[in-house]
Amino acid sequence: MAAILKKLTKKCSGNSTIDIIIKNSEEFDDANPFPIESVRVKRLIKRFPEKINLIEKFAKEAYPIIHEDVLTLITDFLNFKLEHGSKIEKSIYKDMTVPKFVDRLLSKRPLVFCGIRDLHLLQGNHGKGCGGFEAIGKDGEERAPRIMKHYLTYDEMKVSALLGCSCYTLTLNKGDRYNKGITEEEINQFTPDALIV
């Protein structure tokens, strides 16, 4: 299991350069507009040009947080779904590795998903609404845009609850509850960077 964990963390540490980070941010923003601009990398490097290397370092060091036992669970989950899953699930999981599945668990989530009615905001201008996730991955029941190719099934959501992400970030302000991403000019009044989990 340690070998899988090592492979997973190696796979997740990419060759992020500031140009790639900005390009990815722009592509994400085209489909999912950021509510504020002050936290965008392109704004941070204008404010802190001396910290470009630090921003790249933070991006490269972002990683999933996952207990070793969850890797065994994922392997068992994939094997079970390949044997007993729907045709849609078998198609998605056909060549799935543990690192690819962890990536799926992190990247195929809606932007917002909450409440007893599954209120959600979907990625990529797919809109917002409530419900519809119970059909994802079920043969003959999926309805676009809520399809397994783009979003997690309820079974996957249960596994995804067992992992998270961690990364460092630059800070703009003291971080109080109502800060709204407003940039504070007196940067010596708060810590210059922080760890987000």
Give a topology summary.
Blueprint: H1 2-12, H2 18-31, H3 41-47, H4 52-60, E1 63-66, H5 68-84, H6 87-93, H7 98-107, E2 112-114, E3 119-121, E4 128-130, H8 154-160, E5 163-170, E6 193-196
Helix pairs in contact: 1-7
Protein name: Putative LOC101735359 [Bombyx mori]
Pfam family, one: MavL-like
Which structural category do the helix and sheet elements fall into? alpha+beta
Estimate what percentage of residues fall within beta strands.
5-15%
Physical arrangement of strands within the biggest beta sheet: 1-5-6
In the residues, how many domains can be counted? 2
Cα-atom radius of gyration: 19 Å
Number of helices, counting only DSSP H or I runs of 4 residues or more: 8
Compute the average pLDDT: 90
Main beta-sheet annotation: 3 strands, antiparallel
Distance between the termini: 23 Å
Would you report the number of β strands? 6
Level of helix content? Answer: 40-55%
Segments where pLDDT lies below 50 for 5+ residues? none
What overall geometry do the principal axes of the alpha carbons give? globular
- Order of helix and strand elements from N to C terminus: HHHHEHHHEEEHEE
InterPro entries: MavL-like (IPR032063)
Organism: Lepeophtheirus salmonis
Pfam families: MavL-like
Protein name: Putative LOC101735359 [Bombyx mori]
